[in-house]
Amino acid sequence: MNQCVQEADVIPQGQVKALVAKARLAQAEFERFSQAQVDAIVKGIGKYVYDNAEMLARLAVDETGLGVYEDKVLKNKSKARIIWNSLKDKKSRGIIGEDAENNLVFVAKPMGVVASVTPVTNPTVTPMCNAMFALKTGNAVIFAPHPKAEKGSALLTREFMNVVKRHGGPDNLVQTIVNGSIETTQELMRAVDVVVATGGGAMVKSAYSSGRPSFGVGAGNVPVIIDTDANTKEAAEKIVLGASFDNGIICSHEQFVLVPEVRYQETIEMFKATGKVWFTEDEKTIERFRELLFPGGRMNKDVVGKSPWELGAMLGLEISKSVRIILLPAKGAGEEDILAKEKLCPVVAMLPYKSFRQAVAYAKANLLLEGAGHSAAVHSNNEENIRLAGVELPVSRLVVNQPSSFSAGGALNNGFAPTTTLGCGSWGGNSISENLDYKHLMNVSRIGKVITGKKIPTDEEIWA
Fold this sequence. Notes:
Helix content: 40-55%
CATH class of the largest domain: Alpha Beta
CATH superfamily of the largest domain: Aldehyde Dehydrogenase, Chain A, domain 1
């Protein structure tokens, strides 16, 4: 008995050291692979998730108990598709470009071993995405999954390594922690060369405290403004699509809808007309939802990823299983109503505004309460108003006329880099204010030569 206990204690303690040592050997071999060899492996990883989207979605729902199977199938397919489409023509090995005007040559080099800390809310496409980025740039990767998603991580690791081996890659290029803990993840982050941390605020803060270069994310809490000139029916349909996706566990989904006062009732009717919205103006019922979502002022973990009918059942309310979101009028923005905070479930708050500037002020108040640096959305055809929102709001991305949860992380019809890690800049305590991409996981050497014929300005010209 004592021997078994001792062995069980030794394995977790030595796990990280062993994983990193094996990863370094694999990475040193993989670093010599050509662009074509690397791309074949990266494509194979994405294609595995695409081809097995249904099985992986079922595993994620069954293991974590979160989200919607059909939505996870769609997410697995769409993320695999758009990420590979973005990566397939990009140079990431050897000489990747030149700047003739400044006589510079750019050479890509790996960072080494990447730690990918993955959340329970996104147990499939986050490791897929991070593995594709890491391997695209010649690195090895080690996953640190949430304890409730270790089975899925183990499966992905095994299958990704099957892809690696089919293309002649080294053993242990992709690995995962087993029987993990907060302490194990922290040890991993201190031992690798770079960390990608997707998860709760405490884990992201820990990543930045690891002493290693790190990329994390901030909290989401997306306000969405419907402008006076917007097609209300189309806006409502897109908001329902975005806010309901995977039962609201996507960090970029719409949380709080701001509607012109003059079109408030019309907008409510458009939401109802979708056939997917449960709405009430009963203040006692709304207050019960506030207490359910935020007991003691903090988000209730038991509501995360639950469907509207499950949330209703918690309050003794009958809500049809065909309903995708619960829409509740708010008392105000920011500190005026706790419904202005992030809700990782399909509950959306709604508030009327008198002018577009007031809508922007409300959206800003919400973001400063929670979610600064992440994302906001606007449905508008008024370029002046769109740019006003872009200038005034403390966000890293403003999604225009699109379902935010489908688009903020990149899409085939917008210019955001396809990813599962959305940087939130200094507002969210992050090192980047853009979508994490493969380029963040590579070093670039610059070869600089004299610029032939360059006219050197005089001091008088410089200070003129």
